[in-house]
Amino acid sequence: MYTYILRRLLTMIPTLFGVTLVVFFIINLAPGGPVEQKIQQLRFGGMGQVSGSGNGTGSDASETGISKEVIEALKKQYGFDKPVHVRYWIWLKNLARLDFGESFTHEEPVLDVVASKFPVSLQFGIVSFVLTYLICIPFGIIKAIYHGSKFDLWSTVLLTILYSIPGFMLGVLLIVYFAGGSFVEWFPVGELYSDNYEDLTLLGQILDRIHHFILPLVSYMIGSFTVLTMLMKNTILDEIKKDYIRTARAKGLSEKVVHLKHCLRNALIPIVTGLADFLTVFFAGSLLLELIFNLDGMGLMGYKAVLERDYNVVMGLIFVQSVLMLVGRLISDVIYVVVDPRIDFS
Contact, 218 vs 242, CB < 8 A? Predict the structure, then answer.
């Protein structure tokens, strides 16, 4: 197993190199780079739109009405006075020091920009991840035990309806009906706490957070909730048909013992694949939900970084998310072995 882990860790290096190489060249070859955006701001006082084309190295002075000296100074300021492959090599060397550079838009280090948006997505990511597993696994077990009953039928209908509703559309409906849209105003929209949050007691702060969390959290969870519940139920139903379950029943064991002791452990094997997403919840973000609920999180930041050609922020986000995903997949494989010792990756 240790050999397998070492081999996987070593394969992460060329994988990350390939991902960053492709993304770096794509975003640097896209039209409307930071130099062109800065030129437009100089021409129109920050009110213009990017209309140029090219690879982010600026436009000709005759086309922009700005002197060549200014354009060259801008290129040097943003590092575009060097070829793209040289810029990538510089980025890799800085990465070795965990230096993702400075945001072109915010004019501060990328890590500081990410840290300012991090708490919003982190809270929703962790809470939704934990609640989904705590609710869906027992719910799926109960549905499997009462398979074919009215409870199973109606709960399946409800889960199917919920799954068919996109998270952002549910968010709009929740705001309209429960956040002062057209009916009642039971929940607030925007931010994660009230203006008087600091003046509240500890219990009051917790309740205030929960009050702000409910609507966006429901919208975050709706898709994965149905998928995980049905997966849990179906894997248990598959395990029940196997010979070792028949043997357990033949020994006179109760259905509770058969399901929870013998069947559940093997049924959890497909479920643990989702645990690979545990690390990625730290950078979870949903652009549409953050727009709808007025939350300034990672999804909105990444979207703005792409629109504004903030290359350093984009590269920083992609690199960290790629690392977390690869490490998460490795952890998932290790959990496989813990759940089922028969699995051997060596």
Answer: no
Residue labelled with tokens 């790629």: 322
Tens digit of pLDDT at every position of the chain (346 positions): 678 788 888 888 899 889 889 988 888 777 777 777 677 766 665 444 444 444 555 444 445 556 777 777 777 766 777 788 888 888 888 888 888 888 888 888 888 888 888 778 778 878 888 888 888 888 988 888 888 889 999 999 998 888 888 888 888 888 888 887 678 888 887 777 787 888 888 888 888 888 888 888 888 888 778 888 888 888 888 888 888 888 888 888 887 788 777 788 778 777 776 666 666 666 666 777 788 888 878 888 888 888 888 888 888 888 888 888 888 888 877 777 776 677 766 6
What is the Cα–Cα distance from 239 to 231, expressed in whole angstroms?
A: 12
Q: What is the dihedral of CA 251, 255, 256, 257, to 10 degrees?
A: 20
* Contact between 235 and 243 (Cβ < 8 Å): no
From the list 11, 34, 38, 12, the residue with the least C-alpha distance to 102 is 34
| φ, ψ at 202 (rounded to 5°) | -60, -45
Rounded distance between C-alpha atoms, residue 184 and residue 324, angstroms: 41
Where does 114-339 sit in CATH, by number?
1.10.3720.10
Q: Are 236 and 254 in contact (CB under 8 A)?
A: no
317 neighbors 298 (Cβ within 8 angstroms): yes
Closest CA to 283 of 259, 335, 319: 319
If you write DSSP's letter for every residue of 87-144 in order, what string do you get? HHHHHHHHHTTT---B-TTT-SBHHHHHHHHHHHHHHHHHHHHHHHHHHHHHHHHHHH
Provide the 3-class DSSP secondary structure of residue 166.
Answer: coil
CATH 1.10.3720.10 domain position(s) in the chain:
114-339
Spell out the alpha helix ranges (H) of 272-310. 287-292, 298-307
DSSP β-bridge partners for residue 185? 179
